[in-house]
Amino acid sequence: MKKIAVIGIGYVGLPLARLFSTKYPVIGYDINLERINELNNCKDSLNELSKNILKKELITKNPFINNYKKGLYFTNNLNDIKQANIYIITIPTPIYKNKKPDLRLLFKATSDVGKFLNKKDIVIYESTVYPGLTEEECVPILEKESKLIFNKNFFVGYSPERINPGDKKRTIDKILKITSGSNKKTAIEIDKLYKSVIKAGTYLAPSIKIAEAAKIIENTQRDINIAFINELSKIFNLLNINTNEVLKAASTKWNFLNFKPGLVGGHCIGVDPYYLSKKSQDLGYNPKIILAGRKLNDSMGEYVVSQVVKLMIKKNIKIKNSKVLILGIAFKENCNDIRNSKVFDIIKNFEEYDIKTTIFDPLVLPCLVKKNKNKNLNFNNIYKINKYDAIVLAVNHINFKNFNYKQNLKKNSVLYDVKRVLKNKNIDGGL
């Protein structure tokens, strides 16, 4: 019987663990006791799974010990997972301030799993990494901790996550899954495992390296394309041309790729290019386009603020101690994920002008924001009417569709729409 342990129960691990638990006994392990307790009470602060969905699969006893045929058990006790025979690692892979990969959590999880490995066990990685990392850096840790021989006593695979946080239509089972394994037999076994729960099907990659590379270029390609449009937006603003109107016109050609300008954050797209560039630099090649695109996208928060301030000056609005309302703090629309959100860059740059910011996001829990380094954020998810010198629509949540901008703006004020989703006649500027 397959006994699955999912290591890391966040945006990636939780939906995956829940899905597998509909057919197999699954343990969801996380070091965060608060997270485990909320899930055992059928609550998900990340808003990926509803109470009813969690309740349906939740069990209160270790399924490995009690011989459950299926079900989902949450724990922060590492010893609970030692009877698993399939370990799936979904640990975040962030970057340091210097933009270098931070692999500490991934290596720690690998070391923990290695201590419990038995013969014939399989370890599957879903964390985003650069090509080669799974076999070249994680496998030696597994060998060291387990005292077992790779591809003889134990096996590994890589299946990159494609979860889209906040997306209730393209759920995990409806997104085609790339799979791979350290040898042909393992690859087929891993592919069958995912195929048993993924309705959209699977794609078996020829090697782990190819699967790793496929994942990292998905986001890097998108990052570069958006960077190009962001640069065009800067040029068109100088020309007093509406970027959205230009894109509408260009989109009439059948092969035009209709990307939109905007803030590019999140745990994947704002991070993955740095993983690829790191590996490239290690091999002696300094990537040009990848890093240029990332640098430009990283600058967009500062650019938005500079545009808002210019508009305020044109209207003779006093800058120092002025009040600005920022709508949205998540990294993208209709989700509560604030990881690597570029809205924080906007806040930081407003503060440098001594502008007082208030942030409103009805989807984001205050406890999630408090974990951010900036403890002085004026943030709430329940809005009270006030008058502001400027409003910045930073994130296009559906919740803001009927927001009353007029009653929240002073008579002389600025309305800036980052994504230009509002009517042009109602806004003063945008990307």
If you consult CATH, what is the topology of the largest domain?
Answer: Rossmann fold
Which structural class best describes the helix and strand composition?
alpha/beta
**N→C terminal distance:** 54 Å
Helices and strands, in N-to-C order?
EHEHHEEHEHEEHEHHHHHEHEHEEEE
What strand order characterises the main sheet?
A: 3-2-1-4-5-6
How large, in whole angstroms, is the Cα Rg?
Answer: 23 Å
The appropriate CATH architecture of the largest domain is 3-Layer(aba) Sandwich
Tags for this model:
35% helix; globular; alpha/beta; 14% strand; six-stranded parallel beta sheet; 431 residues; Rossmann fold
Describe this structure in words.
A 6-stranded parallel beta sheet has the order 3-2-1-4-5-6, with helices on both faces. Helix 6 links the parallel strand 7 (177-179) and strand 8. It has helices at residues 13-20, 33-40, 51-57, 104-114, 133-146, 184-195, 208-238, 243-250, 272-282, 289-298, 300-314, 343-352, 366-370, and strands at residues 4-7, 25-29, 71-75, 86-89, 122-125, 155-158, 177-179, 202-204, 323-327, 356-360, 379-380, 388-393, 409-417, 429-430. It has 431 residues and is α/β, with parallel strands linked by helices. The chain folds into 2 domains: 4-214, Rossmann fold (3-Layer(aba) Sandwich), CATH 3.40.50.720; 299-430, NAD(P)-binding Rossmann-like Domain (Rossmann fold). The longest helix has 31 residues, at 208-238. It has 13 helices and 14 strands. The radius of gyration is 23 Å and the shape is globular.
